[in-house]
Design a protein that fits this description.
Low-confidence stretches: 1-21
Number of strands: 0
Order of helices and strands: HHHHHH
Distance between the termini: 36 Å
Radius of gyration: 18 Å
Largest sheet: none
Helix content: 55-70%
Oligomer: single chain
Shape: elongated
Number of helices: 6
């Protein structure tokens, strides 16, 4: 099964003197606060994973292990994109959804990494990415479904003004489409109750965010 098609489109703060990079202290401290929130989300994810019942332990080549490893990598890029958007986006609504995505997905990374430790498995496996998917989905140019290319990531980092919002929204929309494709594959193939529970939460969250991202794309297009 091929990766989902991508589209072609590519609060008040106290005023203070900016730093050498042109960012106000409020914005710098805001980024620090988000970084702390992301770490807290990761720790909460670890704690959640530690509560996973250890009735069975998936093997190294299992769907569960493959999903945990690959979705960790997939999520990590979403967190990176969200941190860029939080720092540089123009629309407050875009910065807010970036916070939500970064903290939420970092928490899920914590849970998935805890699974692997509890299963006595390495964070990385011996098989290629996506090999756990029975539908034949392939990695394209080293990227899993929906992931941004290095060139797209570089363009997002270099973007200015409303262009940051537009690029982030497009990349994250496609990223979520690819993530849901991977989640559906895991849900189709696992009977591990904890993996099913977390995957269902992931899917529901990302579906809601897709709707919000689409609305924000319309808003950013008018900016």
């Amino acid at each position: 099964m091929t990766a989902p098609a991508t589209t072609d489109s590519d609060y008040d703060e106290v005023q203070a003197a900016p730093d050498e990079g042109g960012r106000s202290p409020a914005r710098r401290y805001g980024v620090l606060a988000l970084a702390i929130m992301v770490v807290v989300g990761l720790l909460l994810g670890y704690a959640s994973g530690l509560l996973t019942p250890r009735l069975t332990r998936p093997g190294d080549a299992s769907v569960e292990a493959g999903f945990a490893r690959d979705m960790t990598t997939h999520h990590a890029q979403a967190v990176e994109m969200s941190l860029i958007a939080y720092r540089s986006a123009t629309l407050p609504e875009v910065r807010q959804i970036a916070v939500d995505i970064a903290t939420g997905q970092q928490g899920e990374i914590g849970a998935m990494q805890t699974w692997l430790r509890e299963w006595d498995l390495s964070p990385t496996g011996s098989k290629p990415p996506m090999s756990w998917m029975s539908d034949g989905a392939k990695v394209k140019d080293g990227l899993m479904p929906g992931m941004a290319t290095p060139q797209q990531m570089a363009a997002l980092r270099d973007a200015q003004g409303i262009e940051v919002d537009r690029q982030f929204l497009t990349l994250m929309y496609n990223h979520h489409l690819g993530g849901i494709h991977m989640i559906d594959a895991a849900l189709d193939e696992t009977d591990n109750a904890e993996v099913v529970r977390v995957a269902q939460v992931m899917k529901s969250t990302q579906q809601t965010e897709l709707n919000n991202l689409r609305q924000l794309q319309d808003q950013a297009a008018k900016g």
